[in-house]
Amino acid sequence: MNPTQTHPAPPRPMHMLLLTLMLGVSLPALAANQAPPIPPQVDTSSLPAIGKAWDASNPLRGNAAALDIGRSAYNQSCARCHGPDADGSRAPAPDLRRIGRSCNRVADAALKQRCTEDADYYFRQSVLKGKIKLGIEHMPAWEGVLDPQVLWSIRSYVETAGKR
């Protein structure tokens, strides 16, 4: 402790890593102790059937019902970290509206489609696999929790939020 300090400094991430390793507990094991995510309560019966397979790009893009379902699902499951109504400008987690936004500036149709598919893939994988950095869970994995209709509805809503 610094002589001018009255309280010890809070532990730094590296200190936590070292302490965890000394105690013999792995950080992924600590992250695995998080409660599983709870699926949003939404009715997807108005959406076209898309099966359980994951499409290369969002098959619900532009579907009005998907936008409404996506908004509800997002606000139930994502807003706490990414900001209410997809306004992530002051949220602790990344602003999801930015994923693939640069694709709109691509003039060539084939390249634009590939860019959009890449953004959809990144979104899908991030949601399904979650985010773990240095063994610390920053976002839970939603694989097995969200079905394709709900995930793509959330993607549809997020990419149009602020534009409607």
UniProtKB/TrEMBL annotation:
User: Which Gene3D superfamilies does the record associate with it?
Assistant: Cytochrome c-like domain
**What keywords appear on the UniProt entry?**
Heme, Iron, Metal-binding, Signal
Q: Which domain of life is it from?
A: Bacteria
Instruction: Tell me the InterPro entries matching this sequence.
Output: Cyt_c-like_dom (IPR009056), Cyt_c-like_dom_sf (IPR036909)
Is the keyword Metal-binding assigned to this protein?
A: yes
Task: Supply the name of the protein.
Answer: Cytochrome C
Q: Which organism is it from?
A: Parazoarcus communis SWub3 = DSM 12120
Q: Which residues form the Cytochrome c domain?
A: 65-162
* Signal peptide bounds: 1-31
Pfam families with a match to the protein in the record: Cytochrome_CBB3 (PF13442)
Record has Thylakoid as a keyword: no
Q: Name one GO molecular function term.
A: heme binding
